[in-house]
Amino acid sequence: MFTLPQGPAAVVPNFWNVERRLERPDAAQLPTTIRFLTTSDFPPFNYLASDGALLGFNVDLARAICAELAVTCTLQPVAFENLLDQLDQGEGDAILAGLASSPAMRQRVDFTERYLGTPARFAARKGLPPTAPTPESVADKKVAVVSGTAHEAYLRAFFNEAAIRTFPNAAAARDALRIGEVDLLFGDGIGLALWLNGTSSESCCGFVGGPFTENRYFGDGLAVAVKPGGDLLRQAIDYALQRIWEKGVFADLYLRWFPVGFY
User: Fold this and answer.
1) Whole-angstrom Cα distance, residue 52 to residue 55?
2) N or C, which end of the chain has less CB nearby within 10 Å?
């Protein structure tokens, strides 16, 4: 059985080693403008407001990077599938659009350090008695998961005594939890956080237990992409990201855009 904490404070992730002092980039070698490519159809990361303004966590993060480097920012939304081609063609200097730093992607672009992870989380219906999910505590529970995903593979490897119920997509798995067809749901923490904070969840559920971050299952996280060999820009963005964290700017942005944190 499980209890969901009542109104827990969101945990802000930190991917930067505060003891590692990155060298401030030489302003004379930086471009006067960094042209970020992004998307406009994935709120709250990137989306268009009713007045056509581009908003979102990634948008604010790009602007914070430019402010830290004292350069001008432009943000050009393009279709997600066209991001790499647009970068190759020189239509932008960097991609900040939730691009995962996967081995396949690293064959095409260079990445900064990650600015967000992609953890997995358990969610449960509210008002149930306490215990964090462990292989022992979920052994007699029905657990929803999307079929064919890394999350299913992880469950079968480490929670194989649970009654694993597979579903064709995230919406179906979430509905099963919402109506009480299953006891738990295991899936992508970012997607679950957005669902929990939205209306379609009907405030039914919440996270239980902590994040699962094994990168061989859940990836290396989201990072800014630059052209291969773009070391100066990549290093400058890494410097800016660490300074944004140290100053508390990253935490402010995370808490603003993710009121139900996914860590």
Assistant:
1) 9
2) N
